[in-house]
Amino acid sequence: MAATVSYKLNSKQHKIACKSVLTLGRDKHSDIIIPELTVSRNHAMIRCLGEGDYYLIDSGSSNGSFVNKQRVVAPKLLKHGDVITVGQADILFEELSKDVDLIDSVSMLETIVHDASVIKQITILVADIRGFTSMSEQVPINTLTKIMNSWFHQVNTIVAGQEGLVDKFIGDCVFARWETEDNQLKTISQALSAACEINNITGNLNKEYKSQLPTELKIGVGINTGTASVGGLGQDNTALGDAVNIAFRMESSSKTLKKDVVLSEYSFQYLPEKIWKGKKQYIKVKGKRDPVSILGLNFDEVKKIIKKIN
Question: Could you report the per-residue pLDDT of 65-120, keeping only the tens digit for each?
Fold first, then answer.
């Protein structure tokens, strides 16, 4: 969905369209230049993800970025009417809706068809930073913001590099998806590869911020394959359905199982049988009457599986 931001600077009102990345800061090359000493040169950005979701991402600025007076630590999904504050500047975010009063009956039908949700076969990856709440209470807010936004930037690049799409950032968690109509094995391999790469960049952040972190950052990953409703009005361009819920349950179960990656049977069934035969377990999943068969792995095991199937 298209969006605009409007703000007042030097008594002059400005309104500009959001693009894939809109930069905010004191630097003269910023899309929105805020000439205040309390504003960092590269302070923050508004970034479009998925099919029209806009996030405010602080770049680790000293004085922070705010949405509706709440400081942003992790990427913040923007909604119509949100007010972004950087320094003394208030920036109004607005989503653009279609003017249905001017659409004739034929184009109205086309609009309804275009905006209807689509049922697709997808593979879902959910990756979560372990112990984030505890860490956030011990790490200075500026450092925490730099760490989290570096993680989110790199995760987005990794998923895109594996031909996937970041669907949502949710607190300290990323939810990504791959469409799998033709080649289930390929997209499951891509999701597994993305999981390993996300673990690698998490390890690099541990090295970079070693003296500032109370404990090492670690991630847990859940992967599931199934049908989901994707897109459509009132759905925020996200994937919804039982397949998504199971992926989140897989990630949650990685904690109790003490595994790095947990795949549901709906995903691991597409791997060669010799990889999972005799290794699967059964767990009870909320909302499911029968136990779900899962495959729990550590990252070293995942790397070996990727080599075998590629």
Answer: 999 999 998 889 999 999 999 999 999 999 986 443 333 434 434 433 444 567 88
* Least confident among 1-5, 131-135, 258-262: 131-135
Contact 149, 60 (CB under 8 A): yes
Rounded to whole angstroms, the Cα distance separating 46 from 95 reads 13
Six-digit token pair at 180? Answer: 């799998």
Strands 89-95 and 281-283 turn out to be unpaired
- 159 HSE (CA, 13 A, CB side): 25
User: In angstroms, rounded to a whole number, what is the distance separating the alpha carbons of residues 278 and 257?
Assistant: 17
Residues 6 or more apart whose Cβ sits within 8 Å of residue 284: 291, 292
Tens-place pLDDT, residues 173-213: 999 999 877 789 999 999 999 999 999 999 999 999 999 99
CA proximity to 261, closest of 276, 272, 242: 276
- 128 close to 168: Cβ distance less than 8 angstroms: no
pLDDT band, residue 262 (cuts 50/70/90): very high
- State residue 117's pLDDT score: 63
DSSP string spanning the chain? --EEEEEEETTEEEEEE--SEEEEESSTTSSEE---TTS-TT-EEEEEETTTEEEEEE-S-SS--EETTEE-SS-EE--TT-EEEETTEEEEEEE----GGG--HHHHHHHHHHHS-EEEEEEEEEEEETTHHHHHTTS-HHHHHHHHHHHHHHHHHHHHHTT-EEEEEETTEEEEEEE-SS-HHHHHHHHHHHHHHHHHHHHHHHHHTGGG-SS---EEEEEEEEEEEE--TTTTT-EESHHHHHHHHHHHHHHHHT-SEEEEHHHHTTS-HHHHTTT-EEE--TT-SS-EEEEEE-HHHHHHHHHHH-
